[in-house]
Amino acid sequence: MVAFEAVTKRFGRAADEAQFTALDGVGLSVSRGAITGIIGRSGAGKSTLIRLVNGLEKATSGNVLVDGVEVGGLSETGLRDLRRQVGMIFQHFNLLSSRTAFDNVALPLEIAGLSREAIRQKVAPLLDLVGLGDKADRYPAELSGGQKQRVGIARALATSPKLLLSDEATSALDPETTHSILELLKRINAELGLTVLLITHEMEVVKTIATDVAVIDRGRIVEAGRTFDVFTLPKHETTRALLSSSLGVKLPEWVRSGLQPQPLPGGRVMVRLIFFGATAFQPLTARLVSEIGTGVNIMAGTIDEIAGEPFGSLVVSYSSDTAVIQRAEQFYTETGLTREVLGYVA
Ligand SMILES: Nc1ncnc2c1ncn2[C@@H]1O[C@H](COP(=O)(O)OP(=O)(O)OP(=O)(O)O)[C@@H](O)[C@H]1O
């Protein structure tokens, strides 16, 4: 649906030494019908990336394709057509305060030249869809943050787009409202078959709704794939750092700071056990303890859900004695339990 091919974006004049590279050779493909999350820290290049999709920014080099059409090569008319097919929602909603909820949703249809009657027929069901059928005549100032975002979503859907871009759409909302907006986006994706591309700095958002994820760091995509795969076995340091606070696998600082890359004589190994699929429902921890003996310490743990799939993570430590490690490894092989050695401690 959307493809980024070796996309680089620099700000500033080419001759200028102070030119800044916001995106550096980005390659990424967004599948039709998926909810894809792009996550990264502040300044990583997320907004720039998403703004290239509807032509608000132009790539310095490389191609951005929407449904096979190169956005950078579009004329003004072409861009106007594209923006009808690509809806967008924003962190601060961007509603017109002088217009009611109804008239905000109607705006893109007025611009497209629809009759008042055609607009009414389109807007009323959209307000129902987002749960605001009874708030049509309210002004933004009379609506809560969550309700304003619902108006924003209805407005983005007014032109029946095939792609919805979400720019930190829940970042200004409390956790409960965030959850209800994410549920709404999930429903729209399922019922309307709309492809969703969202950018966020919140792992929780990606974890809740994104089927696919790309992690961006200093203008580069450092990791991408199915959310479940990337989050259960993150490969890149940035992904791990972003995940550590979200998935409850953050090690206490006194443990983390003492971790060594090699075993220490008479010391212990620190291992993260990952439970998913068949292993999520088996009493494997008890079996591990009986395999290795009572010297197993539980350091941190969580049971969670990623993109609708159960996922558990347990950080344990036990003796780094060769015989003990061999017994543990054999146990992991037999049970199919995924484990990751975090390091060694004294
Ligand atoms: N018009 C511009 N001119 C110069 N530099 C820019 C411009 N727009 C963005 N940048 C720079 O590009 C980098 C990426 O910005 P971008 O807004 O894409 O990041 P982001 O990941 O969305 O961050 P945030 O979450 O804080 O919005 C930043 O260092 C920013 O200062």
UniProtKB/TrEMBL annotation:
Function: Part of the ABC transporter FtsEX involved in cellular division. Important for assembly or stability of the septal ring.
Organism: Rhizobium deserti
Molecular function as annotated in GO: ATP binding; ATP hydrolysis activity
Keyword list, A-Z: Amino-acid transport, ATP-binding, Cell membrane, Membrane, Nucleotide-binding, Translocase, Transport
GO annotation (BP), single: amino acid transport
Protein origin, superkingdom: Bacteria
Protein's recorded name: Cell division ATP-binding protein FtsE
Family: Belongs to the ABC transporter superfamily.
InterPro entries in the cross-refs: AAA+_ATPase (IPR003593), ABC_transporter-like_ATP-bd (IPR003439), ABC_transporter-like_CS (IPR017871), ACT-like_dom_sf (IPR045865), MetN_ABC (IPR041701), MetN_ABC_transporter-like (IPR050086), NIL_domain (IPR018449), P-loop_NTPase (IPR027417)
Chain segments annotated as transmembrane: none
Residue ranges occupied by any ABC transporter domain in the UniProt entry: 2-243
PROSITE patterns membership: ABC_TRANSPORTER_1 (PS00211), ABC_TRANSPORTER_2 (PS50893)
GO CC list: plasma membrane
